[in-house]
Amino acid sequence: MRLVDNVTKIVETSKSCLKIVVNELVSLGYDAALCKSRWEKSSSYPAGEYEYVDVMIDGERLLIDVDFKSNFEIARATKTYKSILQTLPCIFVGKADRLQRIIILVCEAAKKSLKKKGLHVPPWRRAEYVKSKWMSPYVRGPDAEDDKQEPVDVLTKSVGSIVFGV
């Protein structure tokens, strides 16, 4: 069974929390862990933190977000944006580069939709902020809950408290 199928099955049977997803994936033999990203305030967006799951397969990191589509929902969306939103999976399973491409495309569509409706684009709907959720330095594993571990920089895979612009 493919990873995406396993994740979908787990989420359907246990809608509760990310820890359950991680535990179930680990019980299926995956190197899965809870990740908590954190980013500092910048001139263009507020500070924040976000939790998601990652799985290491053959040295490659796959990101899992069990509530992916909700990150892109906006008020008073145009028909075009609603159709784009319909193409997004509820559960994302994939590599960081694929996720970044999706974020850029969908955030640009959200911007056009909001502008067409005469609405301001809030900072948390801009691509830089949305990318920060998964692309910022993160803590992986049991310490993600306690934040005892030093964050890992996604781009360089180094350990330390490096914050970078996305």
From TrEMBL:
Pfam families: PDDEXK_6. It comes from the Eukaryota. InterPro entries: PDDEXK-like. PANTHER family: DUF506 FAMILY PROTEIN (PTHR31579:SF60), OS03G0796600 PROTEIN (PTHR31579). This is Uncharacterized protein. It comes from Brassica carinata.
